[in-house]
Amino acid sequence: MNPILNDYEHxxxxxxxxFANLPDFPRLEDYDLTRxxxxxxxxxxxxxxxxxxxxxxxxxxxxxLIILPIIVIAAFPPSMLPGxxxxxxxxxxxxxxxxxxxYFARKAIVKMxxxxxxxxxxxxxxxxxxxxx
Length: 133
Description:
Blueprint: H1 8-19, H2 35-50, H3 55-74, H4 87-117, H5 120-131
C-alpha cells in the first residue's frame, strides 16, 4: 500500500487537480505563470523544506550531540575533573547547548534558502489555491 503524501508540494498539486475544472478556481494564466514554473518552484521549495531531514534523523542527531560531551568527559579519570561525579551534568548541559545550536542553525539555513527562492507571483498563486474553498 502506498503511503499518502501529505507535504507542501502535494497539498497544492492535489488541490489543483481536484478543483481545476471549476470556473472560479485560480488559473495559472491569470498570474502570468506556466505549469512548469509552478512545478519547478514547488519541487525546489519542497526540497528545501525536506532538507532538515526526517523526524527520526533529527532525533538521532540530537541524541548523539547530547551524549557526545559525556563520552569525551568519560575519557578523563574522575580525579582530573572538577566536581567529579557532578561533571556528568555539565556534559549533558554542553550536549543540550550543542543540539540547540544545531537545531537553530538548521532552521536559519532553511529560512535563508526559502528567502532566496521566494517568488512573489508564484506565492500569490499558491496562496490563492490554498485559500480556495
